């Protein structure tokens, strides 16, 4: 299991994470990416997707910690 977080203060709203891992990240009314409710802890395929998004985020504001 790994914990997924987005630092909304750093997020530049380019939607890369929501496009890369739409089952884990969503854009909300504040214009920022958020972890979808219930997806804060991921494993297996979802963990891989979260890591892909973490690597793709241009400002490194996604953290995936095991
Ligand atoms: S990829 Fe990073 S900067 Fe882009 S929307 Fe997601 S969290 Fe924000």
TrEMBL record:
Which cofactors are required for activity?
Answer: [4Fe-4S] cluster
UniProt-recorded Gene Ontology molecular function terms: electron transfer activity; iron ion binding; iron-sulfur cluster binding
Spell out the Pfam families in the cross-references.
Answer: Fer4_13
InterPro entries, alphabetically? 3Fe4S_ferredoxin, Fe-S_cluster_ET
Entry keywords, A to Z: Electron transport, Iron, Iron-sulfur, Metal-binding, Transport
General function of this protein: Ferredoxins are iron-sulfur proteins that transfer electrons in a wide variety of metabolic reactions.
Protein name, entry field: Ferredoxin
The species this protein belongs to is Halanaeroarchaeum sulfurireducens
């Amino acid at each position: 299991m790994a914990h997924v977080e987005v630092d909304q203060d750093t997020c530049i709203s380019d939607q890369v994470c929501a496009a890369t891992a739409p089952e884990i990240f969503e854009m909300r009314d504040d214009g920022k990416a958020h972890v979808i409710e219930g997806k804060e802890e991921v494993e297996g395929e979802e963990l891989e997707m979260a890591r892909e998004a973490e690597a793709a985020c241009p400002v490194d504001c996604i953290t995936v910690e095991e």
